[in-house]
């Protein structure tokens, strides 16, 4: 591996890190408050699609905002079902994923070519020319967000409230905190970040939408959350590791010599996820009320 | 009024009440299905389709006649099996999202029968054995990871789905590939195919395999000690442990049972679905993809009960079969993908507990909202508050 | 209805702080928890709210503190009707409640727990300010707690103090305490009561929920008695006699002399049933130097050694949370011991799983019937075979369940142990607490065990059911079984045990006959005072 290859590998890894880190950090906010959203995969997919449409209509920034908004909207549906309506979080998430698969495949057909839609250059976020090559500015957001969230959870009263809602909702309730509202906001915010990650994929990174664009990134983000033990800074690291192996897979595919079949290379991120998660368990402690709807009576 | 009237009446009322509460889950499933269809209709309308026409085509395509019923049941077959995968693990207190991957492995293993010759019937059974072993083997790893390393089965089974998909692609392209047609695998020989049940349709005897599996699981879960232990561990793991039940064992058992049915689901597709009797690696497995995920929806609507699953599979099989008709119907046909949107919406609705109670709640909330709006509309009026 | 017990407060009606008028509460499952209860709270008074389990004490106070809305009725203050949509609104009004299960976030420190209910969201946490305020409050009230340790690491008594501080820091004028003494040692109870009197003198009103007559008489100014959701008495403490209170609480005259109210005569098995005191029978359970860790990783059982013999009840008393649960879990295969020996009839049981231990003739009545003893969504029949479901009797070829025999067995259990239910297929969650416990006890005793490990067997039961279960235990003892009785109810242990041990922080403070010590001495031992200092 020569120097140029290494740089390009790093560049791919940083780009691949963004959706995973953003989604994972968002999910950390949600899980801290007690909501486990397995529907992130679907949110990534739908917001990638919506982001592409938004970008084509109003430019890249609009695209990113639309992606965030759509992500937040789905997060809100998820949150309402699982706070006020005491739903089963796992099943809601599965429903979101199924719904997203159908909706995006359906939408792509409506746009013309089934299964694939390219986002025009003009609608994409402009990449910055750097010494490492063209880099998307969104990477900076993905790098900053974990620190911001870390500060928010550790150092603000809102973070304290968030943790209380996830750890001991009864105590939060008695302290006058509207647990359902806190959870609703947290899950919506988390889904909005996932939405940004989804829109980034179509508008700022890959430049196209396919029906399996998300390719398990939502689930890998969930695994990253497990790995991080709800620490946003570790999620950044985890996101980078997974991004690196995705980058590695992409990079190996471009090699002319094909040392191993590309199918095995494509498995890499998932295998690494499994290995990392099986190594991380044990030291991690999750909120006590994670996954439990809060009932007062 | 006679003295008897009082008690009789109350007994009658109690009887009605019991029936209604007994029907409650079924009613909720139906309500969820209705909500899903309404969401689909709304989306179709937004996109400029005619939902009535589309649903009419779907309905006729699913249940319009014996050919349509055959098509529906053929599509219900693998769904029953993957739904069993999900539900047996839910009964054991776990979310096994891995039916998709286990089903892929089962399908690939079943295709292996194309590599050798055997008498008819035995060939089929050997293929099924291959499939169920492959499915079980693929499901055992997440179970072991959960027991030994505490890895959430949700995450591990999802990762295994992706690994299975790529592995299946590799197998389909490099190992079991049809030398004459690189985009598909070897074809299952006639001696290992499920006989067709209704001529001219793709409805084969594999349907009875699915029904049989559902009945077996019903008996295992409710009439054997093993099933008792699985259900106890699923409902209250601490009490189960107190009762001398080894929770690790019930986890393994439920994952194995689930893997077996998922593997069989893969086999029923490649061995019982004319005309191809093969998997299309080049097209990324259009006939296999999502059967595992749709099975989860079937399981939920079927309330994770084998009998309920059979009923629910007729709905979802019908959606799939009818969707195929719908996508060619009329001047502005609705794409098949609409069906999955409807399924997703159904599952979303299913995740809301006490769905039926929500109806009056939404109504009263709405009324309150309207009342509030009205009050605010009149600036003079003010509510007295303490 | 209770004219002679009618309002003891002669104060003017406008002098009250809060009045609950005709409060009725019907839960969504149809239970009527409160019926037309009316209660007035004045400044500067300690009101005892007395009643048995399920009398509606907690429901009433939850309504006052904004946690539950009443089904009908209203709460008024001199300024008019007050409605609390949430505990926060009640707190803002000046009403704070200390729950039986503390509303503390375990991973937070005391400071963080207090800070949680203050300050604006989205502000930086000013933990230093919260801490300062808390230190001031600690000085003022005389309550001291460590401020920088996660509260889950604190002892239960300390956690309670954090909880009280948290409520006081909001400047409440009405403090409600739900069974505060059940987790405290006698010494800690005295301290708490001292604090309550001081708070009252400073102008705070206090509602003290309890079912202990002595306590309520020692600290309150006025006693309100609830029975089955109805307010049946409102008397001045100075005029109330123990007998009168007991009668109000139970709803009938309690026979016999007054001293027995703590555990009235009819709750106890026949006097003198204690047949063979001492250890005449062979040793069934032998424990030596047993060490086990609790869930938090601290040593919970600290080198215990004892024997339980056939034909005796060995009682372990002590405040809950001193390692009793961990001990029982070790002996029944639910927890791994760190070191030591435990054998049943000579067979080692440490490291064995529950099924193997049951096979040696162990029956286990668990302390938490909802978490451990029952699978609530299961039917009565399914629950009745939990743990014995693999018996040949219930399990046919191919491991098929013999439902016919199981149902017959269940009907026998229902007859023999007076379990009231609609039938074997009734869901266990539809049974009352007493019937659920009878189901568990029946299931375990039907195993024909050599030893019964009974952990808090009568907790939360009404008097009738508790007596019934105590009788069963004595009967088993008289039939030559060994019984290990672990109970936080000191009177229960004193009444039933042939020998008893007092457990404190994982150790036995003493092992003796129940007649060797008086209540006060036992109280001191439960609080950790060494035996030689006591006697």
Q: How would you describe this protein?
A:
The complex is a heterotrimer of chains A (297), B (386) and C (535). With 297 residues, chain A is mainly α. Chain A has one domain (3-118, 136-280): ABC transporter involved in vitamin B12 uptake, BtuC. Chain A is 71% helix and 4% strand. Chain A has 11 helices and 4 strands; from the N terminus they run H-H-H-H-E-E-E-H-H-H-H-E-H-H-H. Chain A has helices spanning 3-32, 40-58, 60-82, 89-110, 138-155, 157-167, 169-174, 179-205, 217-228, 232-254, 262-280, and strands spanning 116-118, 128-130, 133-135, 208-210. The mean pLDDT of chain A is 89. Chain B is an all-alpha fold. Chain B has a domain at 65-333. In chain B, strands 1-2 form a two-stranded antiparallel ribbon. In chain B, strand 1 and strand 2 form a beta hairpin. In chain B, helix 3 (66-91) runs parallel beside helix 7 (206-223) and helix 11 (291-301) packs across helix 12 (306-326). Chain C has 18 helices and 20 strands. Chain C folds into 3 domains: 3-94 and 172-266, Rossmann fold (3-Layer(aba) Sandwich), CATH 3.40.50; 104-171, no CATH class; 283-375 and 447-534, Rossmann fold, CATH 3.40.50.300. With 535 residues, chain C is α/β, with parallel strands linked by helices. Chains in contact: A-B, A-C, B-C. The A-C interface holds A 155-161, 163-164, 167-168, 170-178, 288, 296-297 and C 27-28, 67-68, 86-89, 91-92, 97, 99, 101-108, 112-113, 115-117, 119-125.
How are the elements arranged and paired?
The complex is a heterotrimer of chains A (297), B (386) and C (535).
Chain A (H helix, E strand, L loop, with lengths): L2 H30 L7 H19 L1 H23 L6 H22 L5 E3 L9 E3 L2 E3 L2 H18 L1 H11 L1 H6 L4 H27 L2 E3 L6 H12 L3 H23 L7 H19 L17
Antiparallel strand pairs in A: 1-4, 2-3
Helix pairs in contact in A: 1-5, 1-8, 1-9, 1-10, 2-3, 2-4, 2-8, 2-9, 3-4, 3-8, 5-6, 5-10, 6-8, 9-10, 9-11, 10-11
Chain B lengths: L4 H42 L4 H13 L2 H26 L7 H13 L10 H28 L3 H23 L1 E2 L2 E5 L20 H18 L1 H11 L1 H6 L4 H26 L18 H11 L4 H21 L10 H14 L4 H23 L9
Antiparallel strand pairs in B: 1-2
Chain C lengths: L17 E9 L5 E10 L4 E5 L6 H8 L7 E6 L2 E3 L4 H7 L1 E4 L11 H7 L10 H15 L14 H13 L5 E5 L7 H16 L3 E6 L2 H7 L2 E6 L2 E7 L5 H9 L32 E11 L5 E11 L2 E6 L6 H8 L7 E6 L2 E2 L5 H6 L2 E4 L3 H5 L6 H5 L18 H14 L16 H13 L5 E5 L7 H16 L3 E5 L3 H7 L2 E6 L2 E6 L6 H8 L4 H4 L1
Helix pairs in contact in C: 3-4, 14-15
